[in-house]
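Mods, move this if it's the wrong board.
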Amino acid sequence: MRSLTIGRLAEAAGVNLETVRYYERIKLMPPPARTASGHRVYEDCHVRLLTFIRRGRELGFSIEQVRALLALAEPSQASCAQVNEIARTHLNEVRAKVADLLRLEGILATTIAQCSGDAAPSCPVLDMLTTPERN
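Not the wrong board. Structure tokens:
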């Protein structure tokens, strides 16, 4: 068992030092042991935990979804059905975002195609930005 400083933990898990403090503050990570002088002391289990959180966030899971997944990752709490439900909900959210982005891509592509690029007094891109959104 090796002991790590907060800086070494952050480096090992691939996150910013302030991210570690934030996850501790919101109780996503348990408080670490402290030295007599008050410095945090982390272990390899903290690296695994922080890496799990980082990967979940990279995949777009919300803090609360990551919190739920962490709870379900505990050996006595493992429930593939519950994990599946969280992942399915997230997948639906991702698909909705992709649909929004595809719609946005179409709007931008159409608007840009109308723009001649000349020094004209009217610009379709600027016109689009000043026109109220239509659904």
